[in-house]
Amino acid sequence: MKIWFRHHVAAICHALAQFRRSPGHFFFNILVLSMTLALPFGGMTILDNIQSVTEQLSVSPEISVFLKQEISRDRTIAMEQSIHKILRTDHQKAEILFIPKETALESLQKKTGLNDIADSLGRNPLPDSYVIRLPDNMSSGTALAAQIESVVHQLQKLPGIDKVQIDSDWTKRLAALLSVLRMGLLFLAIILSIVVIVVTFNTIRLQVLMHLDEITLSWHVGASRAYIRRPFYYMGIFLGLFSGCLALLLIDLSLIPFNSAIYELTQLYGSSFQLTPLNPVISVILLGASAALGWLGALLSVNRQLRRIS
Question: If you count Cβ atoms within 10 Å of the first and of the last residue's Cβ in the chain, which end, N or C, has fewer?
Answer without folding.
Answer: N
